[in-house]
Design goal:
The protein contains no helices and eleven strands. It has 125 residues and is mainly β. It is globular.
């Protein structure tokens, strides 16, 4: 059973940076896609960034392109989300997700099998 633990959230001012981490344990070998999603109060869940663990191809939502970077450290079985130039509209609970295969749409949460518990990111103006 794959287990995800995400961490690294916090409170920062606009323009600041944070790095989120997602540690993967148990059955890492069956995971082919990792992603970060976020959900702000009153809003739908949004796919933020995706990485295909084999070829390391990445996908980003338009709202974060050029500011966020998803990366992986295979030795540590950890996926990161580096967030720069943060804006108040980035405030949300961020969730790590993993898929056994390749979701039809990288930003569609229904294609993912495992989820972290979430970590809060708050950006003040």
């Amino acid at each position: 059973q794959v287990h995800l633990v995400d961490s690294g959230g916090g409170s920062v001012q606009a323009g600041g940076s944070l790095r989120l981490s997602c540690a993967v344990t148990g059955g890492v070998y069956i995971v082919n896609t990792m992603a970060w999603f976020r959900q702000a109060p009153g809003k739908e869940r949004e796919g933020v960034a995706t990485i295909y663990t084999g070829g390391r191809k990445t996908y980003y939502a338009d709202s974060v392109k050029g500011r966020f970077t998803i990366s992986q450290d295979t030795a540590k079985n950890t996926v990161y989300l580096h967030m720069n130039s943060l804006k108040p509209e980035d405030t949300a609970v961020y969730y790590c997700a993993a898929a056994r295969w390749y979701p039809n749409s990288p930003s569609d949460g229904s294609g993912y099998n495992y989820w972290g518990q979430g970590t809060q990111v708050t950006v003040s103006s």
